[in-house]
Write a structure and sequence with these properties.
Blueprint lengths: L2 H10 L45 E12 L2 E9 L9 E7 L6 E7 L13 E3 L15 E5 L3 E7 L7 E2 L7 E2 L4 E9 L4 E8 L5 E7 L6 E7 L8 E6 L7 E6 L4 E7 L4 E2 L6 E2 L12 E5 L9 E10 L3 E5 L3 E6 L6 E6 L7 E13 L15 E8 L7 E8 L5 E8 L4 E2 L2 E2 L6 E8 L3 E6 L4 E6 L10 E7 L2 E12 L19 E3 L2 E5 L2 E18 L3 E8 L4 E8 L6 E6 L3 E6 L2 E7 L7 E9 L2 E6 L7 E4 L6 E19 L13 E3 L2 E5 L2 E18 L2 E21 L6 E6 L3 E6 L2 E7 L7 E9 L2 E6 L7 E4 L6 E19 L1
């Protein structure tokens, strides 16, 4: 949020300044990026929108970096996770498959971890890799933020983690006060463009262009007194004709002009702006800082805005329901239309309709008398040509004493809806209302009329009435419909990573989100079951025991969890069991607080289990009780955490070895490879050793300092390590001594191939496909030892390790 409006926002929420329940998160270090978890919620609190997005907890304001990437809509937003008022800005994150069902995700950009002022900004999907930032199979998400200039941040894991490009240095320097960069693809000129608000001689936007998202050229400036904060710029086809594209430039307060853009300069012949939404369009009001999504797959232009008036016990602010924008011709010129996205229908349950009725003030009956509802949609068309009523409309969340929480009223003489101009069209007034627990959105005139509002609706059973009324006469109702809308929450997982489909359900135990995945507390057996099922499959995941006696992977199960489970047990075994029978067991030490990786492969009655990335199964058994069923997890008698639950063979690819063992840090396995997280030095060691060899692999520092190949090491990791360091070196070191280094840029998030060759005391290190080593050194401290990987003050990724 911006300095000029900060005082206003703090004043608006002064009564809500509070610490959120539970221990507050601590910002500023890579090892705890990103801050999590939030306090648990079922999203059922009073005034919490059931189909409007709000942050799981904390303060939210401007939408940021809205994109459709790699199969999901990503909604980032300005966020304070530590309290209910504006304060140090983070970028919150949520995802949705359909713009309706949102899942809270961990924080995307965090102060102290990501440099710069993390105020509002835009985002794009770099499908053609114009930036060269892509390192894997997924298209990079590239976002832009900072003040008085623009910094670039990018993600190669579909928005889970972000790196700061060029250490966060501003790629655009702006000497004036500036903020809120919005970036878009200019297809006609095959390059990127950006609009940034600045106060250079007054309100306006600077326009920049770029071929690669990294190097930007100033193109022009468009100045206008109304153009303050959070600009957006996009194309819309006039009257739906693809050959009649127009450019639209908007401000935070939803004012806009329509014009043209030649690749460098925006022009309009409008003398002043129009208003897109008729709510309270100031910071903290009911419609502010709207942004459109980039890369919506069907070509729609979809918009969401901040509604600051929604407040609860653990959150402040929400987003408007996504609306598709259009541009239509009118006698006064082109005008924007806003229409709720069609995906809203996925929440519909009960529907009722009426036709050709008369609403009469003299009559006591109410067409909607039999309807009781909390969250719903109403559409209605009235014929006002012969109406004798002065006003008509709906009382929402009405009670038997005649009171209601909100009324939507059309004044026939004034030709206003909610006090805002709305002329009848051919004598008809058509309106549409979305009613949520804390939100009311009203649309009319084909979407040219849009009014977003916050309202504290009482959800008590005796306050869920709807009254259709007319004052002082009668009016004809051509048609009306009521549709009950169900909640959109709870269909996916927030911190539990993997490819299993939801919704999930618990069958015993209490399951909650934590930074490391899904945590359970259970007295006996507790199961957490997905909606994914299979017969023959490879299924793997990470299991951490806290106080639980056992936890593991459940498969071929019913909804109650009855099926097979392969678990780790603190009695010192890996066990394969089903209800009533222990099928097979493997004795091995199991320690509480350590993360173990389990993999199961089923082939008909044959079931094999691998532990900690060993190349040979520790269990190879047969059983015919269950042939197919659901995938899930299990824990027994205590607390445990599960993470990275995936079907498919992708995972950590490495040389043949027995069990791998962590020595410092946390090590987990995803389809992309082995992930490490360590505040200082952390090692993950195989049981394979060697003296002279060639050892190579792919390494990446997701965030932080260094990742490397460790060799000739003891069981504690003490030995040699060749690493990549984001301070700009490839380094060969052992405890107490940096043996040699080579200066070269090392970029967070980029994958580097390292190769090490040892010949007695001679140690050579190659980077990438280079023919010559970048390090050629001698050291005689260690002659033989274990192979492994290392991370230092970083989140790291290792993959494709080979020894020859």
């Amino acid at each position: 949020m911006r300095r000029k409006v900060r005082a206003l926002l703090v004043a608006l929420v002064s009564s809500l300044v509070a610490v959120l329940p539970g221990a507050p998160a601590v910002a500023g270090t890579v090892s705890d990026y990103s801050e999590f978890p939030y306090p648990a919620t079922t999203y059922s609190e009073p005034y919490r929108g059931q189909f409007h997005f709000s942050s799981q907890s904390g303060w939210m304001n401007d939408p940021n970096g809205l994109v459709y990437a790699n199969g999901l809509y990503h909604f980032y937003y300005q966020h304070n996770p530590h309290g209910l008022a504006w304060d140090t800005m983070h970028w919150g994150h949520a995802t949705s498959p359909d713009l309706v069902h949102w899942t809270q995700k961990p924080i995307a950009l965090e102060p102290g971890v990501h440099p710069g002022t993390l105020f509002s900004g835009g985002g794009v999907v770099d499908k053609a890799n114009t930036s060269g930032l892509k390192t894997g199979a997924l298209d990079p998400i590239v976002v832009f933020a900072n003040t008085n200039g623009v910094s670039v941040y990018y993600s190669n894991d579909n928005g889970q983690t972000f790196q700061a490009y060029d250490k966060g240095r501003k790629q655009i320097e702006i000497p004036n006060e500036s903020r809120d960069p919005k970036v878009f693809w200019d297809a006609a000129h095959r390059r990127w463009a950006m609009v940034v608000w600045s106060d250079q001689g007054g309100n306006g936007v600077n326009i920049y262009t770029s071929k690669n998202l990294l190097d930007w050229t100033f193109a022009s400036r468009y100045s206008a007194p109304w153009l303050f904060e959070c600009p957006d710029m996009f194309q819309l086809p006039l009257d739906g004709r693809t050959g009649q594209q127009r450019w639209v430039l908007t401000s935070a307060s939803s004012q806009y002009v329509v014009g043209s853009f030649d690749g460098t300069t925006f022009r309009t012949d409008w003398s002043g702006p129009q208003q897109m939404d008729l709510g309270t369009t100031h910071a903290g009001g009911s419609f502010y800082a709207a942004q459109t999504f980039n890369d919506v797959p069907d070509g729609r232009t979809v918009q969401m805005a901040w509604q600051g008036g929604n407040r609860g016990s653990t959150w402040t602010g929400n987003a408007t329901f996504p609306a598709a924008l259009g541009l239509v011709s009118t006698p006064d010129g082109p005008r924007i239309t806003r229409t709720p996205v069609a995906e809203l229908s996925s929440l519909a349950s009960e529907t009722r309709s009426w036709k050709n009725q008369t609403v009469n003030a003299a009559r006591s009956d109410n067409l909607f008398a039999g309807v009781k509802a909390d969250t719903y949609e109403i559409t209605a068309q009235f014929d006002v040509k012969g109406a004798s009523a002065g006003r008509f409309g709906f009382d929402l969340h009405a009670r038997s004493d005649g009171s209601a929480d909100r009324s939507v009223v059309y004044d026939i003489a004034a030709q206003t809806l909610q006090g805002k101009p709305l002329k009848p069209e051919n004598g008809k007034v058509e309106l549409r209302m979305l009613v949520d627990r804390g939100q009311l959105e009203v649309f009319a005139d084909g979407g040219k009329y849009s009014l977003s509002d916050n309202a504290d609706f009482d959800s008590a059973a005796d306050s869920q009435g709807i009254r259709l009324f007319a004052d002082g006469g009668k009016v004809k109702l051509d048609s009306a419909s009521f549709t009950r809308l169900n909640t959109s929450w709870g269909t996916s997982q927030s911190t539990l990573a993997g490819n299993l489909k939801g919704p999930w359900h618990a069958a015993g135990g209490s399951w909650s989100d934590v930074s490391g995945g899904k945590r359970v507390s259970t007295g006996g057996d507790g199961f957490y079951i997905s909606a994914s099922s299979g017969a023959d499959a490879v299924y793997q995941g990470d299991i951490t025991l806290d106080t639980a006696r056992a936890a593991g992977l459940t498969f071929r199960a019913g909804t109650s969890g009855a099926g097979y489970t392969a678990n780790i047990d603190t009695s010192g075994v890996v066990k394969l069991w089903r209800p009533g029978k222990d099928i097979a067991a493997h004795s091995t030490p199991i320690t509480a607080g350590r993360t173990y990786h389990l993999k199961v492969q089923t082939d008909g009655p044959r079931i094999r289990v691998w532990l900690d990335n060993g190349s040979e199964p520790v269990i190879d058994a047969t059983d015919t009780a269950y042939t197919s069923g659901l995938f899930g997890v299990n824990a027994y008698d205590g607390t445990a955490t599960v993470q990275n639950l995936n079907t498919g063979s992708a995972g950590f690819t490495a040389f043949p070895a027995g069990r791998w063992t962590p020595r410092g840090g946390t090590w987990t396995v995803t389809p992309a490879g082995l992930r490490g997280n360590s505040a200082q030095d952390g090692f993950y060691l195989s049981d394979r050793s060697g003296g002279d060899f060639t050892y190579e692999g792919d390494l990446s520092v997701t965030n932080g300092t260094a990742a490397g190949l460790t060799f000739r090491a003891g069981a504690d990791g003490v030995g040699y390590t060749a690493n990549i360091d984001t301070n700009g070196t490839v380094k060969l070191w052992r405890p107490g001594r940096d043996i040699a280094s080579h200066t070269t840029p090392v970029v967070e998030g980029r994958t580097y191939h390292l190769k090490v060759r040892t010949d007695g005391s001679r140690i050579r290190v190659w980077l990438g496909d280079g023919a010559d080593p970048v390090i050629d050194a001698t050291d005689s401290a260690y002659t033989e030892g274990l192979f492994g990987v290392n991370g230092f003050a970083a989140h790291t990724l290792a993959q494709n390790l080979t020894v020859s």
